[in-house]
């Protein structure tokens, strides 16, 4: 398995949906989620850690990106194999 870090920045109401889509994606295992300090009622930063193949995680991130509201972002970083 390969560990990936997905960083979401946007409305708090969307953060739950992002985590759910990643957790429910085929071949992807959500292993951690950490809110970054400094969030507001309008904008949060949530760092999600997932395990999966590069292709499975990329497909899950693409599904998330397709449904983001304007101004929200998702950044996908490959952490490494374990």
Short précis:
The chain is α+β, with helices and mostly antiparallel strands. The chain is built from two helices and four strands.
List its traits:
single chain, 82 residues, alpha+beta, four-stranded antiparallel β-sheet, 2 helices, 41% strand, globular
What does this structure look like?
There is one protein chain. The protein is globular. The chain is of the alpha+beta class and 82 residues long. The model has no long low-confidence stretch (mean pLDDT 94). A hairpin with an 8-residue loop joins strand 2 and strand 3. The chain has helices spanning 12-24, 54-65; strands at residues 2-10, 29-35, 44-52, 73-81. 30% of the residues lie in helices and 41% in strands. The protein contains 2 helices and 4 strands; from the N terminus they run E-H-E-E-H-E. The chain has a 4-stranded antiparallel β-sheet with strand order 2-3-1-4, with helices on one face.
């Amino acid at each position: 398995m390969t560990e990936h870090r997905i960083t979401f920045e946007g409305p708090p109401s969307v953060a739950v949906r992002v985590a759910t889509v990643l957790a429910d994606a085929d071949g992807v295992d959500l292993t951690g989620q950490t809110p970054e300090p400094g969030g507001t009622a309008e904008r949060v930063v949530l760092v999600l850690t997932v395990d999966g193949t590069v292709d499975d995680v990329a497909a899950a991130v693409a599904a998330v990106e397709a449904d983001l509201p304007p101004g929200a972002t998702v950044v996908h970083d490959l952490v490494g194999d374990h």
